[in-house]
Fold this sequence. Notes:
CATH class: Mainly Alpha
Number of domains: 1
Shape: elongated
Helix content: 55-70%
Oligomer: single chain
Distance between the termini: 25 Å
Bound molecules: heme C
Amino acid sequence: MKRLLRAVPIAAAASLAMPAHAQFAKPEDAYKYRASVMFLQSQHMGRINGQLKSDKPDLALVAENAAILDVVNKLSFTAFPEGSDMLANSRAKPEVWSQAAKFKQYADRLNVDVGRLLAASKGGDLAATREAFQATAKVCKACHDDFRRD
Ligand code: HEC
């Protein structure tokens, strides 16, 4: 397992603009890391959704959450080293690795849409914020449909 983890293609990993080298002592750590990150993503998406559903959405609060998402997103995709789909808890499909380019496209798309969400909410543009939020949620779902087991 350790050998597999070291064999993560450097080029692919580096192209995700990662903040630090994704090195995990054990595959379980990679799983825990990405599950933690995705939990944060869902929490902050939920808070934004709550604002956008309210009568008077607070766009400053949306922007605060979007800024967190903007950082957190970039972490999750550093946490899929080869071999870490073999864990009992993992719902990652083997396609994460066999269709790595497509997986990365979703990751990149998410970064673009969250960037738009952040800009729109910072700028106080409610319509653009709603649109970018819908787009972001769609990417989460599309990637899960293709790359996550039920
Ligand atoms: C590039 C693909 C991709 C994108 C984009 C993506 N996810 Fe995920 N997500 C996954 C995969 C794969 C798993 C399963 C990981 C595992 O179980 O090993 C997962 C798991 C999760 C989980 C379950 C974590 C757990 O406890 O096991 C949550 C919650 C989640 N994602 C939320 C989100 C949210 C919210 C977004 C959008 C802001 C998002 N994801 C975007 C691929 C993606």
